[in-house]
Amino acid sequence: MTVVMAFEQWWQLQGEWVEEPNRRRGGESGVQRLRQDDGQVLYAKRQVGHFYRSLRYPFGRPTVLRERDALLALKQIDVKAPSLVFCDVQRDSAGLWRGLLVSEELKGFQELNIWYAEGGRERFGAAVNEQLLKQVAGMLARFHRACWQHGCLYQKHLFVRVERVGERIEVETAVLDLEKSRRRFSPRQAARHDMQQLKRHSSWSAGDWDLLVYFYQQAFGSAIKGL
């Protein structure tokens, strides 16, 4: 969007809740869908008193700022994520920090687990499923080689766009929900944490998982034990 809006203007915009406000990290967080007059769809993550702590920020830092940092960094490593529209933090009248992060809709994308549940594999066939696994693996390898760790890597945080364009099938992947993302000291640390977590919480068959790991290790550049 070209119009620059102040924090309060963005904060006053209201939409439908896609993630109802819930208390976590000592504060409150939720996500709304904002439909603009021009048809554009935005997502606003609203947080009050919601912090994370780290060695760099032992006294806490608003969580939306960590997600903002990750979204901006991913552009440099060719990992698709929602485009950032606005992010800022302000104190309210009671002295509580409010955090707001607004991003664009990933148009044409859907959750990976929903794609499978709706019969995407059966509709497009085994070859497209293999292409999808290779795309996911390559995206995650780029993410981890840059020492980024997602921190909460479930299939629902992986999004895909699979479309038939003429005689061709286009496959594109993206990653969402980066509020727990952080830099690790080495790519292997980031990789091991995320991939083990993804394996525990994924619905892939053993064969699909082995294929994903094969493509991942090819893209990463070396084998990582324990995946």
Quick recap of the structure?
The protein has 227 residues and is α+β, with helices and mostly antiparallel strands. The protein contains seven helices and twelve strands.
Care to describe what's here?
The protein has 227 residues and is of the alpha+beta class. It folds into two domains: 10-104, Phosphorylase Kinase, domain 1 (2-Layer Sandwich); 110-220, Transferase(Phosphotransferase), domain 1 (Orthogonal Bundle), CATH 1.10.510. It contains seven helices and twelve strands. The strands form four sheets. The chain has a five-stranded antiparallel β-sheet. Strands 8-10-11 form a three-stranded antiparallel β-sheet. A two-stranded antiparallel ribbon has the order 4-5. Strand 1 (16-24) and strand 2 form a beta hairpin. Helix 5 (126-145) runs antiparallel to helix 6.
| Broad structural category | alpha+beta
CATH class of the largest domain: Mainly Alpha
Distance between the termini: 41 Å
Beta-strand portion reads: 25-35%
Helix content: 25-40%
Task: Give me the side-by-side strand order of the main sheet.
Answer: 1-2-3-7-6
* Mean pLDDT figure: 91
Tell me, briefly, the overall form: globular
Helix count from the secondary structure assignment? 7
Q: Oligomeric status of the shown chains?
A: single chain
